[in-house]
Amino acid sequence: MKTLILTSLILSLSFLDSNSQTVNDIPIKDIEAEYIQISARPEGSRINIKIEVDYGQDRMTFSNRSHLIMDENGKSKTFNSMIEALNFLTQNGYSFVQAYTFSSEDKNVLHYLLRKTEINKEQTEYPHAN
Questions:
Q1: What residues does each domain of the chain span?
Q2: Separation of alpha carbons 90 and 94, rounded Å
Q3: Cβ atoms 37, 53 nearer than 8 A
Q4: Side-chain half-sphere of 106: how many Cα atoms within 13 Å?
């Protein structure tokens, strides 16, 4: 009986954790876009990075933090590396498509294109498309 209760508790906590990360207040698994683009934002002088997510949302509504992955407490989630971020997004229903570099202001920024692995076949139009 104790094993059953412990197993249920662990499964419940892992479910809550996987649904608690959001971008623009939308759970990552619920973003209604087939493709997303991610890029890294260095976290100050730390080695950790924050991940910016572009799923086609209106650029005019981009606030300083609205395109970052947020944790269950509403704080931007940090990652040790892009590989950790890719593994996190893979666990949340995305697969790697390609990586490319974009140069801006004498900086090279690496972008990753990801595709949602399970697409709602009935969805023919994305709500954020104009």
A1: 21-116
A2: 5
A3: yes
A4: 0
Quote the strand ranges of 7-90, DSSP E.
22-23, 26-27, 35-42, 49-54, 78-79
Q: Are 19 and 90 in contact (CB under 8 A)?
A: no
Q: Using CA atoms, how far apart are residues 124 and 130, in angstroms rounded to an integer?
A: 13
pTM of the model: 0.70
Side chain identity at 47, as an amino acid letter?
I
State the sign of the Cα–Cα–Cα–Cα dihedral 15, 84, 107, 129.
negative
CA–CA dist 54, 23 (Å, integer): 9
pLDDT tens string 37-65: 999 877 666 688 999 999 988 765 555 66
Residue range 68-109, pLDDT digits in tens: 999 999 898 999 999 999 999 999 999 999 999 888 777 888
Closest C-alpha among 27, 34, 35 to residue 92: 27
